[in-house]
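Predict the 3D structure for this chain.
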Amino acid sequence: MIEYNPDTVKEWIESRFDSVRIAPKSGEYYVNSIFTHDDNGHHLYINPVKGVYQCKKSSKSGTLIDLVKLIDNCSWEDAKELVAGNDLRQMEKRLEKFFNDNPVVKPKVLTGLPFPPNTFPIQSLSSITGTRNKVINYLVNRKLPIHDLYYCTTGEYADRIIIPYWYNDTVRYWNGRYIGHRLKAVRYRGPDGTCGVGKSDVVFYPKKTNGKGKIYLTEGEFDSISLSLCGLPTAAIGGKELSTKQMAELFGYTIVLAFDTDKAGRDAVIKSVKELESYGFKDLYRVCCPEHFKDWNEMFISNTPKDIVDWIKTNEKPTDYFKLVLDSLF
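Done. Predicted structure below.
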């Protein structure tokens, strides 16, 4: 039987929920439910002694570790460590190690497309409210650095990590990844249409590239950052569709399509190869991570950069539209 540490449970709950009530007799925590839309009635009950939760509005229930896994998107072992750890305060130790391993980097001077109001560099967030720990823990779980990433605290883009698209030291676009608790929230949201630039007009580069040679093209920005941390030249298109503007920008590179492993990702590779060939690209390649991983960031979490590079060297293949269609038939 798992023994939950009261201090670590309290710390986890208070750092994940904005409004927390405690029942004076039972010691249960009452918070706004993540299982219902815009709950303001504290309908999610968490019992720190029994290690269970129950939503009184949706009838959802389970163990506390299940709830931690769902909210933090982490493994069972990491969830157990967060709420059943000893008095060494496991989460604080992880965050302290993170800061020791990641010295403060002065943010770039922001020019170009403005960020949403109330957007700040992640390291500048206040540690008093628990927001900084929540955001950093989210990124630590994905082994991603926090420099050049921002966070919107309030407003229509609240609870989103803001990922800037830099080009010649200017922000020409940004994407907001939601990390809050609303289950029906759109995961990615960029600027509204009034700014004059859309997702299909730009390409995301984690690092500057020289405009030639191989480039590993992913769907999402976090996948591209993961491959970049492995030492690979990479970019992301922010989805599964390659636009004409994106192909024009990428012309001159040797494209390696490194999309997700799901069916939608495989279908997107076929469509993208056809479009790239029509545009004039030659010597196209494709590679994907092992099928038990959804994407490169998921693989990066549990593997070393060398593991990923070795996998890519072994499994990267030249491709064309004819080959892909034949492969899809058999």
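The CA atoms of residues 285 and 319 lie 5 Å apart.
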